Batch of 4 targets.
Target 1
Amino acid sequence: MALINPTPLIGFKGSSVMTIPEPCVSQYSLTVDAAETIDLMTASADNPWGRRLHDALVFAMGRDETFAVSPYVSVNHEDFAPQGLDESSLPEVGDRSVDAVLSRLEKAGLVTTRTVLHESTSENYLSDNRIVTAVRVLRPFALVSVAYRWSSRSLLGYADQWEITDRSYIVPAGCYLIGEVGELVYDLVGVAGVAGDSDDTFYWLYDLEGFSASHCLAGCDSCGARWSAECGSWCFEADACDARSWSFDDAEGFEGNTIGCPQCVSGRVGFMIF
């Protein structure tokens, strides 16, 4: 049997082509890059508008103050005078994390959110924890960044100088899936524009080939033995063959993304995580 190739399975959704992420195999690691599984989600988007929300979230995490505005109403310099800002019409939505920005947008009545999945690395073979959040943008919006300054260090209270530094593209109304990975701090990886959000969204994600990352197959290129493991376990059981079970903790002969065969010793064992 040929060595298991970690990247041969190709799936199609529309015109998109998806490849199962290649595993990372070392003495202390048997994982796939969690960010690559989010890439599978964005590659399967129903529309291109996810990029707009992605860029808006990055925009809102910038260094200047960020305000949400109606894309169809003109705003000018004086609208952002610090002593006259009206949070009801020009809500400030900038913050340091995706979760905090979404919370501010939700408070402003622009979006609703729900967590589709929040997984830890103990449940699968992901390199990092993974969060997917469903967002419904209730009405289109754009973001404006404003830099505030004081002309003198002796001034107290409101800034006496400010300028509009940038404006985002319009984020259309609709449904989106936001993917983040990390540990204590999560990084935004991608946003997919989708036709709608329902209880089936979770199952749609897990139907994407390679997204689950909860199954692992191993196979030897010499003796043909095959094994499988599930849900992040390192205990491999024989898969339709008479090979003995083994634990990845006891693996030896690491070379590239393969190990020495625990059955015949001379062969190389490759892995596929999906």
Note: Confidence is low (pLDDT under 50) at residues 1-18.
Target 2
Amino acid sequence: MRLLVAGDDEVDAGKTTFTAGLVERTGVRGFKPRAGNGYWYDHDDYRRAVETGRLYGTDAKRLAAVSPGDVRPESINPVHRLWLPTPGRGKGLLGREGRAFLVDRVTDDDGTGHVVNGTVELPASAREGLPLADAATVESLPELNELMARRHAPALEALAARIDRRGAAVVESYADIARPLSEFVPDAVAVVGPRRCRIYDGRRYARACDVTGNSPHEGQLEERVADVVDLLEPVADLTLPALSGEERADSAAVADEYGTAYEELLAAV
């Protein structure tokens, strides 16, 4: 049973809340292949990680905590990107208005490495807290794309192979990207957004990902959720109940409140 959770909004779609509850409900390990957070907007989370010489976000941390067994965030999240707001400086190396990537953390079977954006100045806490002595530095988009092909892609492929061997997994995408692993074919898909959850057959969803037009995102071409679901009819279209902050933080409470949506998702497998 391989389940995919994607979001219909780039920010605050509710993917991780939904995914954490689903992991709680099924007892299956959760994965967040790609993730990112901000030096400014997520500063507390950033500091907690960097002070231990690591780089990960709250999404991977939460999925690792709710998954069965002793799971480190990096083991379920091989690629993490740290962002910095850059107001008034135009488009950065990745063409994103008002923000620039600072550091990528890439983890594979051989360990963890980092990629640094050489066009911006790293905060002192990142320079001092992260093991960047052997980090690769990029100063152009072609350089980054070439390096992502050599380092990021193999790390993601290795994770995809691990998921395939496990047979059972809950995979959360990032932003509004339709799937975080290019060859991943889920059994069923939940596309979530504020108050809404749409369920799709996994194989049809994967085929729609293959045929839809790709769009540039963070240095590579990927399918966006809106383009993919435009080609499909959902198996089910449900309204999600609003949750308090306390309920959202409690995966067992989420599993209870979103129970109907989870039942529909599992029925689509």
Note: The CA atoms of residues 154 and 166 lie 18 Å apart.
Target 3
Amino acid sequence: MAKGFGANIESQVQSMRARMQFGRVDGVEFFETTMRLTQLNLSLQGIGPESDPELFRHFPVAAIAVLESHFKTTVASIINAGSPYLERGLALAKDRLKSSVDVVPLLHRKTVTIGEVVAHVIPFNSVSSLETAFCTLFDADIKTLIADARDPHLLRRDRESVANLLVASVDDLWRDLALAFDRRHILAHEAATKFELSFNDAKAAVDSCASFVNALDAVMWSTIWKDLPLTQYEMNVEAWSLCKAERKALAEAIWTALAVATENGERSRFRKLHAEWKAFSKRWLAWEEEPFVMGAIRPMIVAGSWERVLRARREAIQDWLNLMLPAQTLVD
């Protein structure tokens, strides 16, 4: 392995993150991907089929670039989900990760994840790259998974009977993707002055990438993310569950702190300060939540805000307890 391999991965992954509008959060990459593909489609429709053919040459290159970005983030997300995906991911990259010398420091610094490392080194240059990676990671035929993909929102609502297949013909999709890869390779690496591309060719490249990404997202929700909240109701419930857990943890820390404050003759002062914190937090969060007073997303916003505030308060109390009881193991 060449010297500086790990440093190159770190730099390139961080640069890719910096160019993302929303950073790296599972599920958000899908939104950024669809946003880019939608913009490409709007741009293509804007110039129209009678436009300068030179403009059409841009779209296969851009569409496959978006697909590559989505490929890397999806592979990373799958591997970072843990066993058995981690082991499959390592097997996928075993011929490209021959030494741990450059990789281990990155993982120790937590600047990149093992999933990002694998996603960075495995090839992406054809439909076979998609097949190899996802067949290995899912331990299933990706074409079959894509062919069976249905709207995850409808499936979560037990409306499977009306959840139509997202891909009408997986063979047609694979053909269009293969053409998009081939055209992208030609246009990105050759002058190809005799190579002609039509409006429909450009549209097929964008549409095939969008169809694959949409179906792959559905596959993720039926496998890797099947236990994660998807609908707004599920996200609201999950947010309040996390908030309640944090409130319980804070209560335990407060009981410990009260005991210590009582021993030090500071019980009344501690209670007064905590009451002031609570009053201020309520006023602050009420102001913070004002823009979301209407809409189904408000419960999630409120719960998330309270969880953040409660966690900060618990950590502050534990820091104080660390000063008062440095030799004792404190509440986690």
Note: The chain has 15 helices and no strands.
Target 4
Amino acid sequence: MVDDGLAGFVYRSGRWKFQEEPLERFVRWALEEQLVSAEVLPRYRRVYLVVDGEQRRFRRDRWWTSQKSIADQGRHEVMRQRQDAARVEREARQKEQEEAAERRRREVEEQERARKAEEAERRRLEREEEARLRLEEARRRWAEEAERRERERAEREARLAREQAKREEQERQDLETARAWWGRLSPQQQTELFTAVAEYAWRESSVRVGVPEKPMMWPQYARGVPVHVADKRRTLYGIVRPSPDLVAACPTLAEELVLARNAHEARELAAVLPQGRIVHLYLPEHEQLTVC
């Protein structure tokens, strides 16, 4: 029995298969050239056989076989080569398609990146332009505000200067008026006046008032001279000879005791201070008029 070296090619499975034949038949087929020694192509050199219930693998590179099996192996090899070529072509085509798809994907990604970069740049430029416009607007407002403040400062300074000049002029005029008013009295008459004020305060109010050595004309009392009680608090007692022409600028004078030299001065003061407490000290008028 020949159980190795003889095989037939099964086209459907694409494999060689062991064949067992009696030795006499094998020899007859060989002599009749129905069997020839054939080379096994590399793809088909593995062959399987069940031995003792276990499938085992063998490797053979030559068989005794028929011309038909050799032809079937050749046809199968051609078919496999066509399949391999088709597979290679299919894989190449698939690879090319995948590469093309990858290129398209990258192109789309690149276009998207470019679009996003362009959009980001556009937004950045817009933000810069908006910031520039805001800064220009802020600078314009700052300049306008600075100009307004400078204008207001100049106007305020001009107004203050005018007011100061007006006050100084008024002060000068008031001082001239007061000097003219007090200039009616000689130094002796002024001394006589303040002595009479002290006597009046003691006689009428039982208080002693301080007689100023150098009488000071106070603007808030219409350039009259204030006299104070000779106590610790120096309470204001009255105002001596406020100028009638300056009384209108001193409304609080109506609340104070006003002391005039004589009836003539009292009438002058009463004309501009109708609600005031005015008393005169009965000093002679002719001496005063003579001095004037």
Note: The first strand starts at residue 7 and ends at 10.
